């Protein structure tokens, strides 16, 4: 006696596979039963879903229902695109922060340059040579000014 009850049991396997994939995608159980063509009992009278709502639910599982490598490749591509966008946003944010830091450093440098020019001008106008020597020595000692080779 043949242990297979029906000649086309493979069809049932596809139906089980479809149901599992729909469940993984988060489709409501009652909507899966409708998609499979099953009666939902007394709920037939109370569960009113439009074709559009059922289609939207089905589309949740559409990428999981592809057989073969195409579905996996599409999912991987979508994941890479998402990661790429996230990485681009992170890089853009970091570049903006670096631009702000550079602008701040330029502003500080400009301010220090103006202060130094004012200091040099004030020193050159000073009559007391010992004050000029004292300030000049402290500027050289701190490394703000370096001796030029002539």
Tell me about this structure.
The protein is mainly α. The chain has a domain at 8-65. Helix content is 73%, strand content 0%. The chain has six helices and no strands. The model has no long low-confidence stretch (mean pLDDT 80).
Write the layout of secondary structure elements.
Layout: H1 9-24, H2 29-36, H3 43-46, H4 51-61, H5 69-125, H6 129-142
Helix-strand pattern = HHHHHH
Largest sheet: number of strands, sense, barrel closure: none
The radius of gyration over CA amounts to 38 Å
Outline the low-pLDDT stretches: none
Shape: rod-shaped
Strand content: under 5%
Mean pLDDT: 80
State the share of residues found in helices, binned by percent: over 70%
Quote the distance from N terminus to C terminus. 111 Å
The number of distinct β-strands equals 0
Helix/strand class: mainly alpha
Helical segment count = 6
How do you describe this structure in short?
The protein is built from 6 helices and no strands. The protein has 150 residues and is an all-alpha fold.
